[in-house]
Amino acid sequence: MKNLRIIIALTCLVFGYEGISQGVAGSVEYIKELTSEWNGERFKDGRPKVSDALLKRMKNIQIEEAWGYLRRKGYNNQYEGEWEIIHPDSVMTGRVVTAQYMPLRPDYQKLIKLKGAKENRDTIGGSNSWPIQQLVPGDVYVADGYGRIIDGTLIGSNLGNAIYTNSKNGVIFDGGVRDVAGLLDIEGFNGWHKGADPSYLQEEMLTAINVPIRIGRATVLPGDVVLANRHGTVFIPSYLASELVLSSEIVGLRDLFGFQRLREKKYTAGQIDTRWTDEINADFENWLKSYPDSKLPMTRKELNDYMASRKN
């Protein structure tokens, strides 16, 4: 009985220590657990390092194509729409750094400040600058501000400049921003947000960085890849990003082929707009062989490997 009490006490001590050691940011080990299906290179913070080349290709993917691919893989909650956009005509892709905000609670805020100090974060200014310190080129700062706009403005032009300096990218906020005129002046910066207001951030606090968050109806993990344009935002698990891009590029080529054959009146709209016959599929494959390599969105090897895999 005495030994049992000792074991229980030691267990409580271990779990208590683990709880105390939890920081503001998700640990490298935790992020690796969240993204365990990724097999490639990683950043120092543990996030998957999806290549810049793939992010560039993803800018040409339609939201509907990305959404459809994810649905087929069982990811039904990765899209959020109804945004205000700083530059609506631009497309943004990047690797996600997440941040979670909550309504202010003094005792919890005090603990967060203490944890931030142990992580060498700036405790003099506002904690909404902390995620910005972690950004590297190609990142997108994605924050759950629980839809708050008045007194929920997560950034203005000062922090916007800092974000762009570190990431060369922009933000996606389920919350508000202020000083939109100043944000518009930051060349290359873009932002998706729920509204603008002149108020400052107050009665709201940062609680965590690089942990799972909710953005509207989407679940977002650190290291996801985001595709954002005027039609909404899609958050893509890193391990699916490469296949999603290639699959969507093939869909784009099928569309080009279909449009051309319709203009030539070789097939009817009904034939193109339904499951293709073996004859049309064979015609498409021959069309691909003569399609110029310089116009392909992927390499010829990627295309051939993909088409071969579809036959197996």
From TrEMBL:
Keyword field: Magnesium, Metal-binding, Methyltransferase, Transferase
The UniProt record lists the keyword Magnesium: yes
Cofactor(s) listed: Mg(2+)
InterPro entries: RraA/RraA-like, RraA/RraA-like_sf
Binding-site residues for Mg(2+), renumbered to this chain: D179
Pfam families the record matches: RraA-like
SUPFAM superfamilies in the cross-refs: RraA-like (SSF89562)
UniProt name for this protein: Dimethylmenaquinone methyltransferase
Species name: Maribacter cobaltidurans
